[in-house]
Amino acid sequence: ANLCSSRSDRTVKDEASEGLGPYTQLLLRTLDAPEFRSFLTAVTGVEDLHDDPTHHLAGLHRTPPGGYTKVHRDFPTHPGTGLHHRLNVLVYLNHDWPASYGGDLQMWAPDMSGVGGTVAPLANTMLIFETSDHSLHGLPDPLTCPPDRARLSVAAYFYTVDPGPDGPRDERGHWVAREGLDPKVLGRYDRLRRATPRPVKRAYHAVRRATRPQH
Known about the structure:
By secondary structure, this protein is an alpha+beta fold. It has four helices and ten strands; from the N terminus they run ββααββββββββαα. Strands 1, 2, 3, 4, 5, 6, 7, 8, 9 and 10 form a ten-stranded antiparallel β-sheet that branches. The chain is globular and about 40 Å long.
């Protein structure tokens, strides 16, 4: 895969939605299929789900040794379609992954009072959760796996026209800190994003997609 690297004070991981191998493409097609969306509706109760053929911020995720993702709320709307981001599906691909490597996904309480649960990134584990302003999650502790290993997963996100029972989500407050463990999360980029109107953000992302090199 042609991996796009993300390096900041909040995340160290690689993402790829293009240039994927045949088996990864097959898995994504299976997750995007109407039959699987019907399964998701039966499990979660969220109806009229749309897949995302562009796999914005989804596809193959690779976190190298020392990588992490701070606790966060996922983006509320797709930058291209404007549809509301409602469900995440993560399929883990890590065989022979001892607990000492770290990499468990942490699901935090909405008020950041504590960890509500963790999910080990073991091969053939699938995680499904609804995205909302309350679904705080992350991989905030750097991986300790050997240099020749990385945490791998395939992600698919699903959308609806309806914003959901809580109404349209707030664009702000994307990244959050664990009390006493993380430094201040919001930097200059985050403050700029808060102040930017949503139509301007969508136009910016449309230009980025149009000018992005094709693999």
